[in-house]
Amino acid sequence: MESKEITILLVEDNPDHQLLAKMAIKRLEKKFSLIVCDDGETAIEKLEKGLIPDVILLDVVLMNEVNGFDIARHIRQIPQLEETCIILYTGYENPEYIANSKQVGAFAYLLKDDDMSVTVTKLKRIIESWQKERKS
Predict the structure, then answer these.
(1) For residue range 32-88, what is the model confidence (pLDDT) as tens digits?
(2) CB-based contacts of 84: which residues, under 8 Å, 6+ apart?
(3) What does the alpha-carbon distance between residue 31 and residue 46 come to, in Å, rounded to a whole number?
(4) What superfamily does domain 6-135 belong to in CATH?
(5) Beta strand 55-59 with 108-111: parallel, antiparallel or unpaired?
(6) C-alpha span between 32 and 27 (Å, rounded)
């Protein structure tokens, strides 16, 4: 990966999954700054106030009225965030979810995995792919 620091916004309401995601991000061998939101409303509020992360790791199933698809749809309506890499992050391997992820403008769909090395490898590949796509 390139050496520029990337800003990652993690939107995850489950503390255990939040911890696993944080651990995976720390193992990326990449300079990053991490911002964590426990719910979608807080994430949207920060984004509307000018936060422009490079990557948004977004849980699909949040325990409130707004789900990850709704948040992704909203993000894509903010012009400054059109280049942001949205990764929908979930424990559900649901074909409908996967199809919806593309429709709402997500760059990738990442399954939560208890094996940290699997999550790290997949997350690293997704970010590298997004960075290459941005350069071309």
Answers:
(1) 889 999 999 999 999 999 999 999 999 988 777 788 999 999 999 999 999 999 999
(2) 52, 53, 54, 55, 56, 75
(3) 22
(4) Response regulator (3.40.50.2300)
(5) unpaired
(6) 11
